[in-house]
Amino acid sequence: MKKILLLSLFIVQSCFVFAQNYCKNDSAFKELQFPLTVQDTQTVFYYFNNEWIAGANPDMVDADSILKMEVKNDEYGNRAVFITLSSDDLEKLKSDVKEAMKNLWVNYDPICEFPGGNGLLKEWLEDNIQIPDGYKGNERVVVSFYVQPDGTVTDSKIVRPSKNEAANAEALRLVNALPKFRVKFCTPKKHRIGYTLPITFREPGAIYIRGNEAE
Fold first, then answer.
1. Each residue of 42-60: pLDDT tens digit?
2. Pairing mode, if any, of strands 182-184 and 45-48?
3. What is the CA angle 139-143-147, rounded to 5?
4. Which of 89-93, 112-116, 207-211 has the highest mean pLDDT?
5. Rounded distance between C-alpha atoms, residue 157 and residue 176, angstroms
6. How many whole angstroms separate alpha carbon 201 and alpha carbon 161?
């Protein structure tokens, strides 16, 4: 019965997201990266005796050793599966995880992308920028901002301003208008992510040779 329950749970979970162990890669092989979908960001986390163990997942546990299994949100609001094991089986799992991770380089940094992939961010900026009337020159305005765990852009600030205040105002308007980013966390506790974004202003109709842009 436990094996059937465990198999059913895996099938259901696979319809939603990849498990956190798919965030792993080693020095020889790296998973191909595609633009994140909304489903990709909804990571399921597995807890063993109410403890999240980096690198541990249910396929490392014998189904017969599972005493209890419950699907619910964790304290951080993540979709999670809570699995209860005996103390001996828990220690064995931790030992197995330690051995499995020994020769792996594991990146648990969050993945944060502009919707459709970061390559589309430049296109979005070019499509939405409004060059101020009478603007002359060619320069970059650099804006810092944070992406919150839900993908919302907040706390935008000019860190490298233009002498043209209208350009500064437009850079802030543009960043504040960014759509929600897609964020995938590989650890249960989520945090905001800081970025800086250079926004290029070019005089309408002017032609610039690469290398002449103001630094």
1. 789 999 999 999 989 899 9
2. unpaired
3. 145
4. 89-93
5. 10
6. 12
Please give the Cα distance from 92 to 62 (Å, whole number): 11
Residue 33 in tokens: 């990266």
The two three-digit tokens of residue 70, written as one number:
């419950």
Please state, in angstroms and rounded to a whole number, the distance separating the CA atoms of residues 7 and 18. 15
pLDDT class for 28, splitting at 50, 70, 90? very low
Catalogue the E-assigned strands of 152-192.
Answer: 153-160, 182-184
Q: DSSP E strands: which ranges in the chain? A: 45-48, 51-52, 68-73, 79-84, 111-113, 138-147, 153-160, 182-184, 193-202
Q: Is 146 exposed, middle or buried (CB count within 10 Å of its CB: 0-12, 13-18, 19+)? A: middle
Its pTM stands at 0.72
Residues 6 or more apart whose CB falls under 8 angstroms from that of 133 comprise: 166
Question: Domains in the chain, please, with CATH?
Answer: 2-108 (no CATH), 115-202 (3.30.1150)
